[in-house]
Design goal:
This protein is of the alpha/beta class. It folds into 2 domains: about 120 residues, 2-Layer Sandwich (Nucleotidyltransferase, domain 5), CATH 3.30.420; about 160 residues, Nucleotidyltransferase, domain 5, CATH 3.30.420. Helices cover about 45% and strands about 20% of the residues. The protein is built from 15 helices and 11 strands. The strands form 2 sheets. The protein has a 6-stranded mixed beta sheet, sandwiched between helices. A 5-stranded mixed beta sheet has the order 9-8-7-10-11, sandwiched between helices. A hairpin with a 4-residue loop joins strand 1 and strand 2. The chain is globular, with a radius of gyration of 21 Å. The two termini are about 20 Å apart. The chain binds adenosine-5'-diphosphate. The site of adenosine-5'-diphosphate (ADP) has 11 residues, from helix 10 and helix 12.
């Protein structure tokens, strides 16, 4: 049975085609530069993907959707009601959800009969207790605007947590794990008994770790001060925090860990500083989540940085044994969000067909 996975971002549409019964990837690709003369919009991008796949007998389409609000606690079959709800969610995720919605609508138009499923980055974190998801703001603002920690990268954290149980040969229900998704965007999650109980990204993906171009945790008063001093508009400040900060901002060189490592080894002080801050923040979160779970079995590293920079994992691990205990394992596990999206899609459309 063939499942197509679509991941629509603001300027790209990536796809992977799986033969799900064999867990086999059959085809993958991406349409880049959406919004330019090369490809005007997401509809055209999806049209090209459909054309590339030709006559493949697709049984279901799974879409990565960044924000599922409080409503979507798990992956969902896309119905007109679900689509309306997603459109409402665009207010909470103005950059992330509209491209997914455009992709879903294009598929509905071009591949009419094929059921579609939305898999959310946020849903794995729906198990966060209020003490972990609420900010120290007046409660009425949460009630009015739903300002809270949502957490992201959920599909990746869920995928590697499941794999970790296999590697450790222990049931997930009995494990206390910290999963570190270190890509361009970076986040960490405390996974207790298979459930996310705390995570570093917040209301948006800006909070938490120092990332490629995002600042991560920062005193909100520093943001206000900067806006005043530099006369920055909301958009400009948003741009500074999300696109010009983090590893790039500190090093003044690059957001790519490969470049930073090279420069640091040649003695570039700011590249070294960027790596130091990156590592230090991760260590702090390991300590915090160890305390939150009152125990720890393993720390898992994944995504571009987590999977390809063993020297960095070693640096994070160094000295941690004395803090978290010598038995705690530090593991690298490659993530595969697309496969999990395909599996969720398969499960949901199968349930639907057997219910009919
Ligand atoms: P995204 O979050 O955009 O999917 P990635 O998960 O690929 O990005 O993470 C990007 C980071 O991972 C960069 O800092 C880069 O240095 C690193 N990275 C990705 N692939 C490799 C690789 N093959 N070798 C070394 N570093 C890599």
């Amino acid at each position: 049975m063939l499942i197509l996975v679509i991941n629509c971002g603001s300027s790209s549409a990536k796809y992977q085609l799986f033969d799900i019964s064999r867990r086999k990837l059959l085809a993958k690709g991406a349409i880049e530069r959406i919004g330019s003369p090369v490809c005007q919009n997401h509809y055209i991008a999806i049209e090209r993907i459909v054309k590339t796949l030709g006559s493949a007998a697709i049984a279901g389409i799974g879409h990565r959707v960044v924000h599922g609000q409080e409503e979507f606690k798990e992956s969902a079959l896309i119905t007109p009601k679900v689509l309306r709800s997603l459109e409402k969610s665009s207010e909470l995720a103005p950059l992330h959800n509209p491209p997914s919605i455009a992709g879903i609508k294009a598929c509905a138009d071009l591949l009419k009969e094929i059921p579609q499923v939305a898999v959310f980055d946020t849903s794995f974190h729906h198990t966060l207790p209020p003490r972990a998801f609420l900010y120290g703001l007046p409660y009425g603002l949460y009630a009015k605007y739903r300002i809270r920690r949502y957490g992201f990268h959920g599909t990746s954290h869920r995928f590697v947590a499941n794999k970790a149980a296999g590697c450790l040969k222990r049931p997930l229900k009995r494990l206390k794990l910290i999963t570190c998704h270190l890509g361009n965007g970076c986040s960490m999650t405390a996974v207790m008994g298979g459930k996310s109980i705390d995570t570093s990204m917040g209301f948006t993906p800006l909070e938490g770790l120092v990332m490629g171009t995002r600042s991560g945790d920062i005193d909100a008063a520093a943001v206000l001060y900067l806006m005043k001093k530099e006369r920055l508009s909301i958009n400009k400040m948003n741009d500074l925090l999300n696109k010009r900060s983090g590893l790039l901002g500190i090093s003044g060189l690059s957001n790519d860990m490969r470049d930073l490592r090279r420069a640091a080894s040649k003695g570039d002080r700011r590249a070294r500083l960027a790596i130091d801050i990156f590592v230090y923040r991760i260590k702090k979160y390991i300590g915090a989540y160890h305390a939150a779970m009152a125990g720890l079995d393993a720390v898992i590293f994944t995504a571009g940085i987590g999977e390809n920079h063993p020297w960095l994992v070693k640096r994070i691990e160094r000295g941690m044994g004395a803090v978290v205990g010598k038995k705690v394992k530090f593991l690298v596990i490659p993530t595969n969000e697309e496969l999990l999206i395909a599996e969720d899609t398969y499960k949901i459309i199968n349930k639907e067909t057997s219910n009919q």
